[in-house]
Amino acid sequence: MTKTKKSIVKTPEPPYYAVIFTSILRGEVEGYNDMAVEMNELAAQQPGFLGVETAREGALYGMTISYWKDEESILAWKNNAEHQWAQKLGREKWYQSYSLRVAKVERAYSGGKSG
Amino acid sequence: MTKTKKSIVKTPEPPYYAVIFTSILRGEVEGYNDMAVEMNELAAQQPGFLGVETAREGALYGMTISYWKDEESILAWKNNAEHQWAQKLGREKWYQSYSLRVAKVERAYSGGKSG
């Protein structure tokens, strides 16, 4: 299984956008983690992508925040064909429940060694 | 150890605010989880608090998103005395690195049974 490196994204000065995705899987889905990693890698190739932070706790609960330059880049990623296929699978087969929030980051602070 | 229930917050119609806190601990901190749970419980008593979603992956990496009605409620929580003490401990002793982002949620979608 591919593992995403756990890190804190170095984002530029606000404003920029955050897409907050919280999900609970229906059960353990074979290949789900690989798909999630693949989607994050694909997102990273899109124009306007600034980074992604993700944590899974237990087998079913996950939070993923991707950061984007502007609304246009979020819309383009939403409409990406491969991503749309994953979205459809998620809605119809994988998730017991999910929430997606698009938010404009107005202020940001960081600290520490790699902050 | 107290355990936070893993759930997806039912937030009202946007706009509202999200405070996104991502952190990496310096090492395993005794009592850290209890403190984190206590802070979330204290936050839940503040005016304007809408809910919190949190996930820890491994011993050191954590993401917490708290949702708030408006900027005033975020500022009041930031200035809460007990919370300020926890913030100081975090900056000085606990975190190798952290990032805090204040974002205005503009659009939200949810799906599934409890979404």
Kindly report the spatial arrangement of strands forming the biggest sheet of chain A: 2-3-1-4
For the secondary structure, the number of strands of chain A is 4
Strand content of chain A: 35-45%
CATH top level of the domain at 26-105 in chain A is Alpha Beta
Determine the mean pLDDT of chain A: 92
Largest sheet of chain A: 4 strands, antiparallel
Taken in chain order, the helices and strands of chain A follow as EHEEHHE
The coarse overall form of chain A would be: globular
Query: Roughly how many Å apart are the termini of chain A?
Result: 28 Å
Largest interface: pair, residues per side:
A-B, 44 and 44 residues
Computed over alpha carbons, the radius of gyration of chain A is 14 Å
**CATH fold assignment of the domain at 26-105 in chain A:** Alpha-Beta Plaits
In words, what does this structure look like?
The structure is a homodimer of 115-residue chains. By secondary structure, chain A is α+β, with helices and mostly antiparallel strands. The first copy, chain A, has a domain at 26-105: 2-Layer Sandwich (Alpha-Beta Plaits), CATH 3.30.70.100. Chain A is 30% helix and 39% strand. The first copy, chain A, has three helices and four strands. A four-stranded antiparallel sheet of chain A has the order 2-3-1-4. The longest helix of chain A has 14 residues, at 81-94. Chains A and B meet through strand 1, strand 2, strand 3 and strand 4 of A and strand 1, strand 2, strand 3 and strand 4 of B.
